[in-house]
Amino acid sequence: MAAVPVDHADVIVVGLGPGGEDAAGRLAEAGLDVVGVDDRLVGGECPYYGCIPSKIMVRSAGLLAEGRRIPGHAGTAMVHPDWRPVARTVRSATADWDDKAAVDRLTGRGARFVRGTGRLTGRDVVSVTDADGEETEIRARQAIVLATGTRPAVPPIPGLARTPYWTNRDAVAAEVAPRSLVVLGGGAIGLELGQAFARFGTAVTVVEGAPRLLAREEPEAHELLLRSLTEDGLGVHTGTQAESVEYGDHGFTLRCARGDRFTAERLLVATGRRVDLARLGVGAIGLDQDAPVLPVDERLRVMPPDNGRPGIWALGDITGKGAFTHMSMYQAGIVVRGILGEGGPPAAYHAVPRVTFTDPEVGAVGLTEEQARERGVPVATGYTDLADSSRGYVHQVGNAGFVKVVADTRSGVLVGATAAGPYGGEILGALSVAVHARVPLAVLREQIWAYPTFHRAIGEALADLAA
């Protein structure tokens, strides 16, 4: 048996999504010998299958919706959807799913790149298997960073695995909009893609097992989206458990526990994401490979440096702190400072922002009312409709929305907030600052809010909080 080639590096970064790539580049620029390892596209899910292509779809669908609102407001218009320019734009933005530019960007910062599947085989060793099955062993002198992200979670529904179902990856690569689509899952991915396809003429049905859409957000967001999606022609079924899937000449048939039966040309599975720690080989360093996430401390350390052995850090989805590009980038900064010995503040997760890019958008930060109460926080809430703050404009943009704030009555600060409506993700900025900086409610109430902006609703919600 031929000996396995052995390489050495100061730092090995396994997984080159946004956070892993950034960490590898910054450490290389600091003068360390860094090897980045990934078997998928450098840059990760976001630029190729997530944030970027899906927002192209969402924005294109929004243009159609805007055109359809012209009659009665600004003249006349006839809108004819055409998926082909959307597909072309997605293909261009992803460089036809080619990561050469990203690889060049990484190596241009001084890091080395190895294409293959990285697996821990020891405290300081990563074994990399390439597409031909050839293995290389890389030994770390200073640190290993684990940033392998997540993959679509496919539920064990009888019959599903034998069908050509879609995940988000297939949906964003679609050359044509399907005639009909069943979306399994009422979270952000399923709703964004489902609404986009519906606006291009696809008959879309959303099936969600939980009692409401966006189950982790405020219930008012579910109510708002239910109205909006229904007006866009989507069929929405919550509290509906999928029981089996069949596929044949006439497409997919989804059968549900309470007797519902849905058929469509395509089936999009959007039931969340999963971590694969067994594939990463964490058992080799004494960790539970069946755990849902990797345990990390406030410095993102899985294991600190010990007796001359390298430290192991983790960042991104596998830490369980939020499957967002902005989270992985935030954590990358903490990991880089830790490896370079620069100190700085530890990770803080009390003000994590998140946006669902449906129409209307749902932006949220921190805790929902329910989450705060579950943690024993004494809660007061304030709520206002956007229409009450921007009457002269809101009727021109479709469904309105709301702002809801959640305050800790002990400390007198906001612990969470939701801005749902037109530009909800942009309105969220002010609320994120308030939650992150723990701005006293007394100070927030002194704020002057420009009229007739949508963000003025924040002041109305704070006034309702005081009522």
Automatic annotation (TrEMBL):
Its cofactor is FAD. Gene3D superfamilies: 3.30.390.30, FAD/NAD(P)-binding domain. NAD(+) binds at residues 185-192, 208, 272. GO terms for molecular function: flavin adenine dinucleotide binding; NAD(P)H dehydrogenase (quinone) activity. InterPro entries: FAD/NAD-bd_sf, FAD/NAD-binding_dom, FAD/NAD-linked_Rdtase_dimer_sf, Pyr_nuc-diS_OxRdtase, Pyr_nucl-diS_OxRdtase_dimer. Its EC number is 1.-.-.-. FAD binds at residues 55, 118, 317. Disulfide bonds join 46-51. Binds 1 FAD per subunit. Residues 10-332 form the FAD/NAD(P)-binding domain. It comes from the Bacteria. Pfam families: Pyr_redox_2, Pyr_redox_dim. It is an enzyme of class 1 (oxidoreductase). Residues 352-461 form the Pyridine nucleotide-disulphide oxidoreductase dimerisation domain. Keywords: FAD, Flavoprotein, NAD, Nucleotide-binding, Oxidoreductase. SUPFAM superfamilies: FAD/NAD(P)-binding domain, FAD/NAD-linked reductases, dimerisation (C-terminal) domain. Belongs to the class-I pyridine nucleotide-disulfide oxidoreductase family. This is NAD(P)/FAD-dependent oxidoreductase. The lineage of its organism: Bacteria, Bacillati, Actinomycetota, Actinomycetes, Kitasatosporales.
